[in-house]
Amino acid sequence: MKIRIESLRKQYESKVLEADENIKLLLKTTTILPDHTDINKELDKWTEVKSSNLSKLQQILSYLPKPVENKDGK
To answer: In principle, which of 4, 29, 49, 56 could form an S-S bond with 19, CB 3.0–4.6 Å?
Structure first.
């Protein structure tokens, strides 16, 4: 189970990084690319990708087993 969760964690983190880089690129681009004439639509799309994957990441990490604490506090 832990390996499956770790795999999903990496997948979601990767999508968040990809979305973040695309958002930064679109915000810094001074010229409009022919394929992306609606910059706001593209920004909205990548913001949704980032938000969705952050939410998924938070959910999947909640399934990781909690570390066991020693009874003597060490």
So the answer is: 49
Percent of the chain past pLDDT 70, that is, above it, reads: 88
DSSP readout, the chain? -HHHHHHHHHHHHHHHHHHHHHHHHHHH--S--TT---HHHHHHHHHHHHHHHHHHHHHHHTTSPPPPPPTT--
Domain hosting residue 35, numbered range: 15-59
Q: Is residue 66 part of a domain?
A: no
Whether 68 is covered by a domain: the verdict is: no
The answer on pLDDT for 29 being more than 80 is no
Q: Are 6 and 65 in contact (CB under 8 A)?
A: no
Taking the model in full, what pTM does it have? 0.78
Domains in the chain, number: 1
